[in-house]
Amino acid sequence: MSHAFRFGFGGEDIDIDDDPINQDDVHTTTELPIRPKGTEAAAAPQAGLLRKYGLGETVLSQLPSMISFNTIQVPTAEGTYIELGRREYFDIRAQWLVEQPMYSDAPLAFPYVTHDVVPEVYEGGLKTWEGSFDLACYLGTHIGLFMDFMLGCGTALPSLTLIYHLLSTAPVENPPRRTFVFGDLNPAVIDLTTLPNLVLTYASQRGLIPQNPGDLDINPSLVSSFKDALEERNTDLQAVVGSWFSDYASLALRDTLPGTVLILAAETIYSPSSTRAFTETVVDIMRQSKERGDAVQALVAAKKVYFGVGGGVDEFLKELNDRGGKGTLVWETGEKARGVTRCIVETKLKDDSFLKTEEQKQQ
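Below the sequence we write its predicted structure tokens.
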């Protein structure tokens, strides 16, 4: 039986420590009581319908006229920081309440504000999870630019980190094609969280972010310049919404060119059922990517164990091994970390070699 449950954050969203380089100070989750699933709205199955679409002009035009935000500092390999804009939770909620009729899954999330996750109905995409922050920090100091698939994207901090660095590079003639695919169970998460955060990332990189926290005016000029910056770098933004069904991988890869594929995910293996579905999807994407000639790997941020829920890294590694994959721990919280150990697992197929970073390739 699946359950709805709440993680142990003190506020409406994760509290990131003022010194983000000190990863040991990021708050950790704790075990709290869970309750049986069974009182979800009748529209629940619609949250899992699978579809893909581009985050182009039509979707960008649906942004609100103003976004309230705060910023998160992510370290870089040079020992400095980048600042990523993140839409405030109260602002997301306000737009949701106004636009509920637009979404078939609109009744599913905010009535569950006492629960962070309702499995197979709402997977917590409106909040920022500490694993997402860990992965963003790791990417900021380790990884080059790739074609990116973010599974269970939510606020999308890891992908935003890559996009910030991409926007920081000067346009070149005939740039390689890059595609960012953002996947989430709920379409409203893409519209109300992921997409606004993409625009906030562009505004932050361009120095257009006012005081923090603050409000950013979303005007046609800003949206147009964001689109132009992506086009100059031959970069496409796509979204996949719905459950991890058997055809998820083929849909995610559709309309993308062969190249270097990086799959990113955070806090997706919190229960046995989510671990099985997620692992199957990751391995399927890696296999289909390899078959068409891609270099591919996955980075999965998670806790060593999710108390009271049944998921964790050991379960993920077992599922991965059973499906022809292999994982290597590449980062974990230090001995001084509070609470449950958090880590990042680098994942590959057993018959494949690890993907090298852009810096390693040039050596």
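The radius of gyration is 19 Å.
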